[in-house]
Design goal:
about 30% helix; DNA polymerase, domain 1; alpha/beta; TIM Barrel; ten-stranded mixed beta sheet; elongated; binds S-adenosyl-L-homocysteine; about 375 residues
């Protein structure tokens, strides 16, 4: 595992697993216990320094200090949508900008997390793809997004669901993703239930197989088309892992025994929203226990692509539902702050407010 040492040789504490931390602090005495204490301070209490860990013996604290640093993302701004959706702009240590989106929906509060700076998948309809891949995010950067946002929430409010649907292709950053997900799921760290963590992918088949082998999280697959030619036209990944290969893998994944795979289907007017597409989609889903999530395209000035009418989306959904396929329409959230699907990467920090300061200033916070 990469440890991301700084120039002074200290390691990124938040990119390490508890076992790795234990191995690094040999010689402090009671390593297992000390490592767990520091780990909980960092992930459960949001500690910024080892100095503040006042139940850890001074000598052990000094060893931690010598060997590790505790990284944080710098929050550059927060944009709030009229619909309650909030977008966080973060700056990494080396100056890249990434984003997370917090989406309240009834009794759910879903956090959409980024996994890379930019993305290498180059799906033609997606704005994040325009950036290309700048770099993979470290485990600490993937896990700091929920940690730091959680710290700013009002008492009694908590993030209920996490979706890896922000910038980047999570499975292209496999090792760092898995390390971060361990932190998400560990009861000694962020403590999310695996039922409430979803990884979304363009369909990197070998990595999908590997992921379900090591972690019990939910899987979402961006399908977006009903024929090979159509999919290859907008998702270059289809030339490497065809839809046929992808669907066959989905049929065989052991995950199907206890969970449903979600297929995301971005609806683009005149491209993949015909009734023939709906009928083909029903056929493609045969024999699988799935959910389809229709995402009406979020228009933007950089693309000619149009969003289908609500009536068309409804008719399309009806074909699926009548054929017995579970199918929902993703409501569009945060469009006014460019926080909706496919819009991440074009940040406009002008209207940023100091969300954290404001939330902290509220009575009872
Ligand atoms: N790379 C992963 C994770 C990103 S999820 C994946 O593709 O699954 C982002 C989702 O938004 C994907 O389902 C993508 O197909 C969809 N999307 C991209 N641009 C969009 C747009 N303009 N409108 C609606 N959905 C879009």
């Amino acid at each position: 595992m990469p440890r991301y040492p700084r120039a002074d040789g200290r390691l990124d504490f938040k990119s390490l697993t508890l076992d790795e931390i234990r191995a690094e602090i040999e010689g402090v005495g009671s390593e297992d216990f000390r490592a767990l204490q520091a780990y909980k301070w960092v992930w459960q209490r949001g500690a910024r320094t080892f100095a503040e860990m006042n139940n850890i013996a001074k000598g052990a604290r000094a060893t931690f200090e010598e060997r590790f640093y505790i990284p944080f993302l710098e929050c550059e701004g927060v944009l709030e949508s009229g619909d309650g959706t909030t977008k966080f702009l973060w700056k990494t240590e080396d100056g890249w900008q990434i984003e997370s989106v917090l989406i309240p929906d009834g009794d759910r509060l879903t956090l959409c997390v980024s996994s890379q700076v930019g993305c290498a998948m180059a799906c033609t309809f997606c704005l994040t793809g325009d950036l290309g891949l700048k770099r993979h995010l470290r485990p600490s950067e993937i896990a700091n997004q929920p940690l730091q946002i959680r710290a700013g929430l009002l008492a009694g409010t908590r993030i209920t669901n996490v979706v890896m649907m922000g910038m980047g292709e999570p499975l292209h950053n496999f090792d760092n993703l898995v390390a971060a997900l361990h932190t998400y799921l560990s009861e000694d760290a962020l403590g999310f239930s695996h039922r409430r963590v979803t990884v979304s992918t363009v369909g990197l088949v070998p990595a999908m197989r590997k992921l379900v082998d090591v972690l019990p999280v939910n899987l979402a697959v961006s399908l977006n088309a009903t024929t090979e030619a159509q999919r290859s036209a907008v998702m270059p990944v289809n030339r490497k892992h065809s839809m046929a290969e992808l669907l066959e893998a989905c049929r065989e994944l052991p995950i199907l025994q206890h969970k449903r795979i979600t297929f995301e289907y971005v609806m683009m007017a005149g491209f993949n929203d015909s009734m023939d597409d709906a009928a083909r989609l029903v056929e493609l889903m045969r024999g699988m226990k799935v959910k389809i999530n229709l995402i009406p395209y979020n228009e933007n000035p950089a693309r000619e692509i149009r969003r289908p009418t609500d009536a068309r989306v409804y008719d399309f959904q009806t074909v699926l539902v009548q054929a017995g396929v579970q199918c929902s329409v993703r409501s569009t959230r945060g469009i006014d702050i460019s926080a909706a699907c496919g819009q991440l990467g074009k940040a406009d920090p002008r209207s940023a407010t100091d969300w954290f300061a404001r939330v902290r200033a509220q009575p009872g916070a």
